[in-house]
């Protein structure tokens, strides 16, 4: 859907592009050929998207102490992240809350509740895992080395992080 496509574009621009272009720059500086440079860019893009998806998920399941920010901080800022967008499939009433940026009294609390009642968190984790699997596949195209081994570890760190 259009709203989710916008979310993914925003996530790429906010988080994934930094990681993708950083990994790409490292490959270029190391003298990699164009094909490998493209592989490293896609690896970083997938890692960046997965990182942000997990971050959005943790906003709903982690404590303030664990995350260093209040629970549901994104909702309170008026942001509809992946868990909310997935929850819209089961609870269309979220669409009106998204349009008003969760600004009416009780919107953020109700949206938080509906996300937990839906499959939004599970779907978000699934999508993060999908991006991590793709990153792992891409890292497998890189010649075996200590650097490649490091790239193979990162997806598990991302998908299993707690803060």
UniProtKB/TrEMBL annotation:
Cofactor(s) listed in the protein's UniProt record: Mg(2+)
Keywords (A to Z) from UniProt: Isoprene biosynthesis, Magnesium, Metal-binding, Transferase
Keyword Iron in annotation: no
Gene Ontology biological-process annotations: isoprenoid biosynthetic process; pheromone biosynthetic process; ubiquinone biosynthetic process
InterPro entries for the chain: Isoprenoid_synthase_dom_sf, Polyprenyl_synt, Polyprenyl_synt_CS
GO cellular component, one term: mitochondrion
GO molecular-function term, one example from the UniProt record: prenyltransferase activity
Family: Belongs to the FPP/GGPP synthase family.
Protein name: Decaprenyl-diphosphate synthase subunit 1
Classification lineage: Eukaryota, Metazoa, Ecdysozoa, Arthropoda, Hexapoda
Gene: PDSS1
